[in-house]
Amino acid sequence: MSDQRPIGSFANQVKRINETCISGADVYSVTKYDGFVRSLDYFKKQVFSRDLSSYKIVKRGEFAYSTIHLDEGALGLLGDEEALISPMYTTFEVDESVDKIYLSYLLRSPELVSQYGLIGQGSVNRRKSVPFSSLAEIEVFTPPLPEQKKIAEILSGIDEAIKKTQSAGTQVDHTIQGIRDQTQTGKGTCTRIGDLIAKISTGVSVNSENRPCRASEQGILKVSCVSKGVFYPTENKVIQAEERERASMSVKKGMLLMSRANTPELVGACGMADNDYGDLFLPDKIWNLELSDSTPCDKRWLNNALNSGIVRSRIRDASTGTSSSMRNISQSNFCEIELIVPPLEIQQMQADAIDCLQKRRNAFAVKQAMHLMLKAALSEDLLSGRKRVSV
């Protein structure tokens, strides 16, 4: 038997409709990153119909994909006992000649996802549907079953390592946020932000291309360059040539940057520049906060205090805007917000503790990136047959 087989040789479409609402299973969505997920958990609200009589019933071990979003990788294998999914999804089952975990990795691999875009039917690129009849014609690498199981075991092991690293990183994030929140719950002097800040400067509004700049290009930061107390220089866009002269304020090491206009959840997010970035400039939606010499304040501590839950809430309350998706805070409103400022030695202790934790967090991020690179490389080789595993 050849190792290359059409999907239709081992898979059959399933059309199990919940016509009489006999199933009491939860409604699921099928996503490109997590496969099957409970709809209420994913969207945090009900987005599905109240009438579930047209929904499809999926059983454990069956597959489903979004007919119009398959080219984005929206496909999953159901691990729970039963699920209801929207009629927009296509469901299918496979026979015992293929390992389901192996096939799940294979069908969501970049090589296969790129093929889905080519077989889609329809005139609108982002809404091209892929019927099962077209999916069934794609030939895929299906080595002997023991080899499939071994490949699935290898990739599952990497995924487990990724989950553990994510969990460890999340725990560190929670600890960091806990210390940030403590900056505003202990003893200290109630002080206006305006008494801590000597000057608030910003960039100008310029036109920019919607693509990240390369090392040889000049760029302007996005408002997303600061989040969770961290500065992300890769969050940038290319400045158009005719606008470069207007972009005057470049990023310097130690700058305390804050997004004064953003979504309601992120307005007021801060981060400190970790290096000089002479080719990156501030937009008008990012402030550079320069500290006053009159009140002893550790800039690292202030960055963390501004990212505490209490202060972020005050910033949101002080922000204005008619749009539910964008809020803005004025300098005057920002400067009137009050902080609890402890003695300088306490500030430094809290800042040092967070710096130490942030180094651990960065180590987890590096480890995570290595795991993802390893998974990508092995997936490309093992799921295509370029490298074989011995069983």
**How many runs of DSSP E, i.e. beta strands?**
25
Strand arrangement in the largest pleated sheet: 12-23-19-21-16-15
CATH architecture assignment of the largest domain? Alpha-Beta Complex
Give the % helix: 25-40%
Largest sheet: 6 strands, mixed
Mean pLDDT level: 93
Strand content: 15-25%
Could you walk me through the main structural features you see in this protein, from its secondary elements to its overall organization?
- The protein is of the alpha+beta class.
- The chain folds into three domains: about 5-140, Adenine-n6-DNA-methyltransferase TaqI, Chain A, domain 2 (Alpha-Beta Complex); about 145-185 and about 340-390, Helix Hairpins, CATH 1.10.287; about 190-340, Adenine-n6-DNA-methyltransferase TaqI, Chain A, domain 2 (Alpha-Beta Complex).
- The chain contains ten helices and 25 strands.
- It has a six-stranded mixed β-sheet with strand order 12-23-19-21-16-15.
- Helix 2 (about 100-105) crosses helix 5, helix 5 (about 145-180) runs antiparallel to helix 10 and helix 7 (about 300-305) crosses helix 10.
- The radius of gyration is 26 Å and the shape is elongated.
- The chain starts with a strand and ends in a 9-residue tail after the last helix.
- The mean pLDDT is about 95.
Keywords, separated by commas or semicolons:
10 helices; Adenine-n6-DNA-methyltransferase TaqI, Chain A, domain 2; 25 strands; single chain; Helix Hairpins; elongated; 3 domains; alpha+beta; six-stranded mixed sheet; 23% strand; five-stranded mixed sheet; 391 residues
